[in-house]
Specification:
alpha+beta, 109 residues, four-stranded antiparallel sheet, 4 strands, single chain
């Protein structure tokens, strides 16, 4: 991903993670362990974890800028998650990324 300046529009990252059979509790724990620390990272505007009826987890993040998201992704917290999570996931995450193009509440952009 290309880093942009901190004055760019907010960026979002969202997607689904499917647990392997018998691994939902552990994947849930790993994901929940990300929420509060990630919300405290500089540039975090939103960070939400949802559990779908079909058992998948949906993660939704909004960051002030690509630079902030890049910094978050380089933290030991995220690197440890990326190392541990595949053992508990069915395949790769279904992930999407994009710039927030609607006006952002509070003028975060």
């Amino acid at each position: 991903m290309t880093t942009t300046s901190a004055t760019s529009a907010p960026v979002s990252l969202y997607g689904f993670l499917t647990p392997k059979p018998g691994h939902a509790d552990e994947l849930r724990r790993l994901l929940l362990d990300l929420v509060e620390p990630s919300r405290g990272h500089d540039g975090s505007l939103q960070y939400h974890l949802h559990e779908q009826e079909d058992g998948r987890f949906f993660l939704y993040e909004v960051w002030r800028s690509q630079e902030d998201l890049d910094r978050h992704n380089a933290t030991p917290l995220l690197r440890a998650f990326m190392s541990d999570a595949p053992e508990h996931m069915e395949g790769a995450p279904e992930a999407y990324f994009g710039a927030v193009i609607s006006p952002y509440p509070g003028g975060a952009a």
